Structure to design on (574 residues):
């Protein structure tokens, strides 16, 4: 099955092409540039390189968040439009799960991290064992302090992956001590091959695939807060 | 016999997710608009992040419904046209990237369209254009007089120096405690009232085709404020009528003067505010005497944002050989004279 995988949920652009279990091509660029300009030319170039035409594609895999709102939307829009118009299956995979799956771990807990600013992160907890990836704690937007408390309850070492985990390394180590291990440069971002492997067994309806922002839009959050205050005032 | 040209259009620049198919640049085959207005009402205006979220949720259903309505596939299409600006950047990017994916999948030419060029070309779905022409473009974000000496050529001869007419409508509506969007409410109230408040007509310097509505907006706010201080009752119908009379009078007068000076064959009304009954009536009566100038006003459904207008404008650009690449971006401040 000829499959295209796309990840634009952070500033890293990861694209992969596979034919069944064989990875044909991977492209990762880890530079802060506009995804909207770069994704389609990158897909085009990679498929060219693999002598593949759009109509040869049999499946699309995409990360649908959490991460950069705009980045996630660009990837999801391209992936679901391609899958819909080529009439082929689509798989939407957590960007955090695919980052966790990029870790060279045989057995253990892996915590993927995207920075969410102001001491907060997008994260989740996954168990890797014998090539499978299981969600232990679901993806969320959380403060580093609260998250470390939850992780300590696992009473097991946790491997932190993703280049943005470095931003919070000091705070995490202060709280978790030796239970926190950092993959550092070994796992800076999602490897297209890991995303391809994860999405292979999944399938979603293109029209139904939407980003998982793991956070309300700011205006929405403020509106809810204002309404709660109003309600409290009436009591 | 010449083969028919089918262009698929996509528009997501603000709060409508829209797609359409237009035949030969003049005939609507399918036209689907999914409005988000209900979700923005509680915020009193369009929230960009929420608009982007809706677009990505709605886009496939809208594209699918468009092909369904037409009974056609992308194999029948000659090109994909999409709004590339101006507009909300996050919103534009949904349409732009969907269009690129379709163009790539089916090896179709990709054409980025200026949103206002689209509004102007909505007229071609009603009546063939005759050049030279002028278009009065009035919407939530725009108030411009555009001169066209031929297809695809746009020269802005007048524009607003502050608020767009639509913005002024929304702000005045808020002052009168009318719900968002304010335009239709003011138009309805104005029809029941009279121009009694003596609001200013801002014409700017002699001969200018530019507009300014912020002074008028402030005059309305001051009128309400002063009445409150004196304990007087404002008559909303009359204030709406006075405000609308000022806007409509200035728009009509400048358009009429420009039509004479530029010796145009047609004047096209474009943009969401073109739905305003007061403006339509005023232009109709002003142009009734100008026998050699034809006034074209599209039906309401083509005045507000839609993708048929983008496909119509895209058809002309397609025929002129204009193409965009897979690196096309969304441009929030795109210039109509240079796009
Ligand atoms: Zn518009």
């Amino acid at each position: 099955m000829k499959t295209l995988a796309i990840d634009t949920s952070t500033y890293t652009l990861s694209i992969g092409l596979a034919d069944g279990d064989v990875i044909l091509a991977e492209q990762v660029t880890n530079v802060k540039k506009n995804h909207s300009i770069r994704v389609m030319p990158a897909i085009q170039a990679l498929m060219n390189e693999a002598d593949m035409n759009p109509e040869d594609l049999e499946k699309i895999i995409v990360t649908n968040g959490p991460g950069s709102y705009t980045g996630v939307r660009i990837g999801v829009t391209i992936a679901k439009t391609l899958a819909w118009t080529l009439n082929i299956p689509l798989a939407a995979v957590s960007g955090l799960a695919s980052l966790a799956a990029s870790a060279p771990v045989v057995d253990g807990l892996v915590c993927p991290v995207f920075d969410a600013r102001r001491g907060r992160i997008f994260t989740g907890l996954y168990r890797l064992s014998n090539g499978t990836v299981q969600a232990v704690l679901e993806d969320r937007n959380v403060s580093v302090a609260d998250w470390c408390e939850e992780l300590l309850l696992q009473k097991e070492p946790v491997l932190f992956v993703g280049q943005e985990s470095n931003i919070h390394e000091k705070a995490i180590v202060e709280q978790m001590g030796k239970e926190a291990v950092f993959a550092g440069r070994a796992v800076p971002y999602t490897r297209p091959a890991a995303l391809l492997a994860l999405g292979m067994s999944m399938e979603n309806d293109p029209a139904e695939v939407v980003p998982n922002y793991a956070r309300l839009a700011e205006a929405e959050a403020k509106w809810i807060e204002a309404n709660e205050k109003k309600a409290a005032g009436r009591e | 016999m010449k083969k028919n040209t089918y262009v698929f259009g996509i528009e997501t620049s603000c709060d409508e997710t829209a797609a359409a198919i237009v035949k030969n640049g003049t005939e609507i085959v399918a036209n689907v608009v999914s409005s988000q207005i209900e979700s923005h009402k509680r915020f009193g205006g369009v929230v960009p992040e929420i608009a982007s979220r809706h677009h990505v949720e709605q886009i496939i259903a809208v594209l699918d419904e468009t092909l369904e309505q037409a009974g056609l596939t992308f194999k029948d299409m000659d090109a994909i046209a999409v709004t590339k600006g101006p507009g909300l950047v996050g919103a534009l990017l949904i349409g732009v990237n969907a269009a690129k994916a379709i163009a790539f999948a089916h090896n179709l030419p990709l054409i980025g369209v200026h949103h206002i060029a689209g509004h102007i070309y909505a007229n071609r779905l009603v009546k063939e254009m005759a050049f030279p022409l002028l278009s009065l473009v009035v919407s939530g974000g725009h108030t411009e007089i555009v001169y066209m000496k031929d297809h695809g050529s746009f020269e802005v001869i007048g524009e607003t120096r502050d608020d767009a007419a639509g913005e002024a409508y929304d702000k005045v509506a808020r002052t009168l405690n009318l719900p968002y969007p304010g335009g239709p409410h003011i138009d309805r109230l104005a029809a029941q009232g009279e121009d009694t408040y003596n609001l200013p007509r801002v014409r700017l310097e002699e001969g200018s085709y530019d507009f300014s509505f912020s002074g008028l907006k402030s005059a309305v706010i001051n009128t309400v404020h002063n009445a409150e201080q004196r304990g007087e009752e404002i008559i909303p119908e009359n204030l709406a009528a006075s405000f609308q009379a000022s806007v409509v009078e200035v728009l009509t007068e400048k358009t009429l003067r420009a039509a004479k000076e530029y010796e145009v064959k047609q004047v096209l009304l474009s943009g969401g505010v073109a739905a305003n009954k007061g403006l339509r009536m005023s232009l109709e009566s002003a142009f009734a005497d100008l026998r050699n100038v034809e006034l074209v006003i599209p039906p309401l459904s083509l005045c507000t944002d839609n993708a048929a207008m983008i496909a119509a404008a895209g058809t002309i650009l397609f025929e002129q050989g204009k193409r965009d690449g897979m690196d096309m971006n969304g441009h929030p401040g795109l210039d109509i004279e240079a796009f």
